């Protein structure tokens, strides 16, 4: 019984110690907030602008003064791309950016709803966490072998597509899809990945365990970037390789085709993307192509060691 009494006496002491530590931690955080509030609002805005949109939104909970700074147009203008007004001017549908009551609301409009641009053949969107550019090239803007032959490809509206038409493969023994995009439309100094966005019909045929060659390369760059060819699998049941079709949050599927590092904004650089199966010549049908999407690649830390050449990141392998 004495041992039990000793344990009972220790428990309140341990809880008391933990309670004091928690109170001290809260007091330290409160002191940090008080110190921050002593700064002019303009200084708070400058500090917050060096963080991320997600950090700024979280800071709203700290105090009313910080919330006022966190909602200011000064901060959210910096999170928008420098050329956002030019991109909005290319909108296929009227998009009155001036109608947005704040730059913060404009930012989240561009994050949550893809903006059709360039005649409705491309879509533009911002990555919500960091404000980086995401571009999807619609199927009509892609170069598809025999794409204008109704015996091979069928063009139609498809529910859930952001474009007016998608490309449905009726039958072919030769699969060749190519796309290209000016790199200046993307955010600079960022790793990007390219994806084929598609769906499968119930009677899809000819893609199970069939390796398809994919390649992403930057053309026009000084020093060259020939990219790297990889094998992907366009099967609704996945595949035996690493690069297989996976579900997206919008009801479509995608497969990663390759990745690259986007340098500074250069007028004469383009990223070229290709999907090829021209060797087996087996019959194929039943895929529906919405387009090719380029968006920032999140897990880039594992590539950084292999991409620095003469002190400059050139290619993400």
Q: How far is it from the N-terminal to the C-terminal residue, by CA? A: 66 Å
Taking Cα atoms only, what radius of gyration do you get, to the nearest Å?
26 Å
Number of strands: 16
Q: What proportion strand?
A: 25-35%
On the 0-100 scale, what is the average pLDDT?
Answer: 82
Helix content: 25-40%
Overall 3D geometry? elongated
Number of helices: 7
- Secondary-structure element string: HHHHHHHEEEEEEEEEEEEEEEE
* Structural class by SSE content: alpha+beta
What about the largest sheet? 9 strands, antiparallel
| Unreliably modeled segments | 301-317
Summarize this structure as a short list of keywords or feature phrases:
317 residues; alpha+beta; nine-stranded antiparallel sheet; five-stranded antiparallel sheet; 7 helices; 16 strands; 26% helix; disordered C terminus
Which secondary structure elements does this structure contain, and how are they paired or packed?
Elements: H1 2-37, H2 41-48, H3 53-59, H4 64-70, H5 73-79, H6 84-89, H7 103-112, E1 115-117, E2 122-126, E3 133-138, E4 143-144, E5 153-156, E6 166-169, E7 175-182, E8 190-205, E9 212-219, E10 228-232, E11 246-247, E12 253-262, E13 270-277, E14 285-296, E15 308-309, E16 312-313
Antiparallel strand pairs: 1-2, 2-3, 3-14, 4-7, 5-6, 6-14, 7-13, 8-12, 8-14, 9-10, 9-13, 11-12, 15-16
Helix pairs in contact: 2-4
Q: What does it look like?
A:
The chain has 317 residues and is an alpha+beta fold. Helix content is 26%, strand content 31%. It has helices at 2-37, 41-48, 53-59, 64-70, 73-79, 84-89, 103-112; strands spanning 115-117, 122-126, 133-138, 143-144, 153-156, 166-169, 175-182, 190-205, 212-219, 228-232, 246-247, 253-262, 270-277, 285-296, 308-309, 312-313. Strands 1, 2, 3, 5, 6, 8, 11, 12 and 14 form a nine-stranded antiparallel sheet that branches.
């Amino acid at each position: 019984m004495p041992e039990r009494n000793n344990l009972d006496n220790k428990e309140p002491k341990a809880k008391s110690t933990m309670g004091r530590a928690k109170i001290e931690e809260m007091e330290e955080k409160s002191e940090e907030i008080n110190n921050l509030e002593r700064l002019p609002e303009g200084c708070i805005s400058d500090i917050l602008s060096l963080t991320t949109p997600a950090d700024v939104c979280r800071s709203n909970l700290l105090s009313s003064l910080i919330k006022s700074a966190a909602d200011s147009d000064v901060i959210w203008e910096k999170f928008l791309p420098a050329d956002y007004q030019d991109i909005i001017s290319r909108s296929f549908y009227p998009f009155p950016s001036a109608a947005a009551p704040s730059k913060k609301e404009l930012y989240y409009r561009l994050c949550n709803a893809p903006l059709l641009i360039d005649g409705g053949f491309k879509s533009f969107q911002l990555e919500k966490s960091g404000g980086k550019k995401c571009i999807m090239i619609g199927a009509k803007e892609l170069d598809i072998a025999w794409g204008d032959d109704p015996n091979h490809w069928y063009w139609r509206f498809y529910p859930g597509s952001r474009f007016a038409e998608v490309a449905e493969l009726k039958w072919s023994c030769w699969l060749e899809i190519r796309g290209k995009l000016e790199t200046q439309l993307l955010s600079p100094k960022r790793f990007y990945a390219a994806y084929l966005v598609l769906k499968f019909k119930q009677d899809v045929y000819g893609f199970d365990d069939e390796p398809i060659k994919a390649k992403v390369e930057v053309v026009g760059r000084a020093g060259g970037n020939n990219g790297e060819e990889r094998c992907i699998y366009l099967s609704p049941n996945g595949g035996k390789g690493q690069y297989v079709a996976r579900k997206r949050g919008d009801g479509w599927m995608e497969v990663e085709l390759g990745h690259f590092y986007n340098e500074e904004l250069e007028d004469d650089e383009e990223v070229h993307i290709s999907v090829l199966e021209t060797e087996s010549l087996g019959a194929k049908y039943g895929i529906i192509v919405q387009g090719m999407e380029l968006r920032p690649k999140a897990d880039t830390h594992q590539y950084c060691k292999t991409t620095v050449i003469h002190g400059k990141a050139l290619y993400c392998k």
